[in-house]
Design brief:
Helix content is 22%, strand content 23%. With 269 residues, the protein is α+β, with helices and mostly antiparallel strands. 45% of the residues are buried. A 6-stranded mixed β-sheet has the order 3-4-2-1-13-12. Strands 5-6-7-11-8 form a 5-stranded mixed β-sheet.
Length: 269
């Protein structure tokens, strides 16, 4: 069977619910993981999403900031939320696919939203950057090592780790999301736990991959100054199963879009 899992920083699920429904209707992934839903749990648009054919939904949110959610065609057996840096700030949620998922039954789906880190890449001057580095440290300590069985980790990790994950490696070395301290931290935690960066397995460097384009650009498409901030990783026991990682660039051109686009991983099991 084939399993498709999409990650998308939606930048307000209520504001962009029509874009979510459009994407689900056009692409029909088996699982959709959202970040930055910016929605408290009691206001989450559950009815609209279930009406689109995704009856199985888990979410963790807060008013105005952060927030994560997982939508699935298959039943979800669990809902687990981890707090990092001692802050219950809705930056992680996970769920286990039920028996109806066939060969994917028992797979754990982890959905993360790593702090952006602000604009100044100095932990001493910028508390937001310090929080980001602390979050990455805690994420490294977790690593997923306690899990047994196949797992998929997706989300807006807010780091473009490789040289060709940004439009200009040299110009962005001192820009938050591509500084050496961030990229080294992300690659270290990924490598130590054995997570596989499926996008770069299927599309090796030096080919460019972008999943985010700034709102600050007056013509994002022509300038094409993007970064790969959104990631789809699999655990070592899923090595060799990735068949495609599709970046749905056209969503960046939709009306009132998120600055991130959906990224879909397809596995053959």
């Amino acid at each position: 069977m084939r399993l498709s899992v999409t990650t998308w920083n939606i930048n307000s699920v209520r504001l962009r619910i029509d874009l979510v429904l459009r994407f689900l209707a056009e692409v029909k992934p088996d699982v959709l993981c959202l970040q930055e839903t910016k929605c408290p749990d009691d206001a989450f648009p559950l009815k609209a999403l279930r009406g689109s054919g995704y009856e199985n939904v888990v979410f963790a949110g807060q008013k105005g900031y952060n927030g994560v959610a997982i939508l699935s065609r298959f039943p979800l057996l669990t809902r687990d939320v981890m707090a990092f840096c001692g802050k219950p700030d809705a930056r992680h949620i996970s769920a286990v696919l039920g028996p109806e998922a066939g060969a994917a039954a028992g797979f754990v789906i982890h959905d993360f939203y790593v702090p952006a880190g602000g604009d100044i890449p100095d932990a001493g001057l910028n508390p937001k950057f310090a929080h980001k580095l602390d979050f990455l440290r805690d994420l490294r300590e977790w690593g997923g090592r306690r899990m047994a069985g196949p797992a998929i980790l997706v989300g807006d990790l807010n780091v473009a780790p490789l040289e060709h994950d940004v439009w200009s490696h040299k110009q962005l070395l001192s820009v938050v999301s591509h500084t050496p301290i961030e990229t080294e931290a992300l690659e270290l935690l990924r490598g130590e736990a054995g997570w596989i960066d499926t996008a770069r397995v299927l599309t090796p460097e030096p080919e460019k991959i972008y999943t985010w384009w700034s709102y600050r650009s007056p013509d994002w498409s022509a300038a094409n100054k993007g970064r790969r901030l959104d990631h789809v990783w699999v655990s070592p026991d899923l090595d060799g199963t990735a068949r495609a990682v599709d970046v749905f660039r056209e969503a960046r051109g939709w009306e009132r879009p998120s600055d991130h686009v959906p990224v879909t991983l397809t596995l053959e099991l």
